[in-house]
Design a protein that fits this description.
Length: 188
Amino acid sequence: MIFYRSFYEAIKELPLDKQGEVYNAIFSYGLDFTEVELNGISKTIWTLIKPQIDANIKRFENGKKPKAKQKESKTEAKDKQEISKSEANNNNNNNNNNNNNNNNNNNIPDFSDFLAYAIKEKPMVDKDKVKAKYDTWVSNGWKDGYDNKILNWKTKLKNTLPHIPEKVDISKMTSEELRLHITKGIAY
């Protein structure tokens, strides 16, 4: 069973007795396949979480099935190259980069600039998670998790922001906002 961060984020704002009800429903269903009867906000939260658990169970069951063996090649062999690669790639590239950037750290921004850009792109972003991402990149020599140098930090951050959760107070949400928050796939 997979327990997503979005489940935790949604449940942690509930009163403790309601948290217990939802956690019990999740674990009873995810581990024993028994559904617990709920009502009120607990039922609302459970109704939004259950389809994800169902999908995970289905994925697990499909993963246990033996894979069918491939009988024939799916592609035909390609024709051989007529000329050598050095002849084929005869390019004269004269790049004159006049980059006057004196920052030896691959233009690592100050954290305040980094955070300001993150908030501009995603106003409700969790600032602690943004700080953790910044610190990770700095400690890795301004490289991402794939060990690639970060050349344009704004583009890299903009592409990373959808994977950083928002900081929300679900106790102030309408049930429709809560449903949208849980179902939009925040799983970390």
